[in-house]
């Protein structure tokens, strides 16, 4: 997945906003909370960071091409980085980005979720 494809996919999710920050990374938020980051790949290769469930974190951290996300995981957060992005993994990445959006949106207050039309 390219960064353009990543940005288009994240933009298609409900109640999202975009900012470029943290060394020119593509940062996507839902309700003001980060759910996906495009950036920080080795040798300027595309890499993608997303929040996961505990179960997916335990599974993905052992899978080739994935690792606990820099900075996030070292603070005990369940974030994963896909650092070997291939066209074959695009569908998988879309699933994990969708899950990250859902997990982060569920962490918003009920009032904020209702205001944004999320999880209804």
Automatic annotation (TrEMBL):
Gene3D superfamilies: 3.90.1150.30. PANTHER family: CYTOPLASMIC PROTEIN, CYTOPLASMIC PROTEIN-RELATED. Pfam families: YjbR. This is MmcQ/YjbR family DNA-binding protein. InterPro entries: YjbR (IPR007351), YjbR-like_sf (IPR038056), YjbR/MT2646/Rv2570-like (IPR058532). It comes from Vibrio toranzoniae.
């Amino acid at each position: 997945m390219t960064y353009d494809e990543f940005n288009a996919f994240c933009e298609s999710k409900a109640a999202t906003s975009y900012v470029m920050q943290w060394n020119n990374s593509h940062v996507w938020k839902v309700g003001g909370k980060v759910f996906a980051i495009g950036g920080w790949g080795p040798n300027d290769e595309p890499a993608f960071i997303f929040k996961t469930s505990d179960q997916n974190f335990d599974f993905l951290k052992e899978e080739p091409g994935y690792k606990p996300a820099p900075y996030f995981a070292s603070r005990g957060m369940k974030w994963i980085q896909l650092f070997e992005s291939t066209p074959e993994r695009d569908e998988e990445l879309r699933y994990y980005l969708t899950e990250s959006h859902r997990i982060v949106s569920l962490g918003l207050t009920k009032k904020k979720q209702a205001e944004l039309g999320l999880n209804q």
